[in-house]
Every structure is written in structure tokens, then in C-alpha cells.
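This follows on from our talk about sequence and fold. Please put the record directly below this note.
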Amino acid sequence: MKFQDKLQVLRKEKGLSQEKLAEIIGVSRQAVAKWELGQSYPDMLNLIAISQLFHMSMDRLVKDNEDENCQFDQTKKSFQTNNDLIDFLCRAKKSTYAGKGAEALPSRPMSHDLHYSEGPYTYIDSYLGGEKFAGEEALWWDGQPVWSMNYVGRIVADGFNGDFLNEVLSLVPIEYPYRGPLVYYNGDFSYHCIVNGMFEWFHGYEEIFCKGNKVYECMFHGGNIK
């Protein structure tokens, strides 16, 4: 399947119009239309954005071969299998750090620990530090660890606003259940997040700008545990 055809299939299966896809990526509708007609090709930054949006590796996205349909189906099945876990993860994130939830007893000296549970699912976020921090989020199902994400970040300049970060993290999308949305703006602040890989194995980077100046950055990575 060629890229132009693959893009149409992915867009329609996600229920997106050309206008909505263009808005998410940050291009014109005409650009999306030309991609789908095979009249032009996205640049590298737009390919990365499309790859992230549809949870498909760059290689699978741009490669034309007969095995692609099988790989495509496997990618979809993998995401569908994790749907319940991802839904729970997003609720847990919104109820803990992002929602300024109460901290549990520290599990390590000077650590900040936040817990959230629903039925067989348990979420724990444990981190150290403040202006410079490192931590881990993890999920358990029926007492067994099934997924984790490590992160490390820092404030790099004056102008950082913790409330803006909480606001961003409270908008964690189902499509990228790691930190915040790919792009978010509010007043003088802007947030950008790049993710490579899928829920089972991924890495990413987020940053915040204030009036065009970078004030915060964080790197994260993780995946399934078994």
C-alpha cells in the first residue's frame, strides 16, 4: 500500500476529516489533500507528527510492500488490546499529579508518591526532586506489574509556571497516554511533546516555552512489563 492510500485509510478509520487532520498536524487542508492524491509528500516533521498520531512507525508508514497490511493490522490490534489499561492510566494521571491529588507515604527518603486504584488496576507515581526531578510511573493489574514509564526533567529558565504544566498533564490524550497533548497553547505559554514508538515500547520528549523562551524540558521512556 502506498503512503497516499495508507494516509487515507488511517485518517478515515480514526474518523478525521482532511480539515481536522490538517489542524492537528498544523498544515493546510490543501496540503493533506495533495498528500492523499500523491501530488506532494510531507516533510520529515510532518511525517513524525503523522507517525505519532496513528501509532505507526516511520518505516511502516512510508514503506510500500505487500506485508504492510499485516503489520498495520498488528499495530491496530496491539493498541486495541491495551485500551482498558490506557483508559485507566489516563484517569489515574488526571487524579494524581495533574489533579494535585494527595500524596501517599513516601516509599523512599524524600520521595513524592501518588497512588490511584480501580478494581484490579493500581497506578503509582513516585518521583524525587522539584526544579530538577526524576521519577517513575507504573501500572499493576491484579498485583502484577504490567507497564512503567521513567522520566527526568528540569526547569531551565525563569518564567516556568507549575499550574500550566498541571493543566497540560490533565489533558493527557488517549492516543498518547504518557504526558500531555502533542501541542498546547495558553496565553504566553506553549507546550510541545514528541513521542516515538507505541505503548508497548516508546520514548519521548516534552518542553514548555514562555513568550518564546524555553523554560522547561523532560525526557521519558517506557513500555510493557512481563
Summary: Residues 75-80 have pLDDT under 50 and may be disordered. The chain has two domains: 3-81, 83-224.
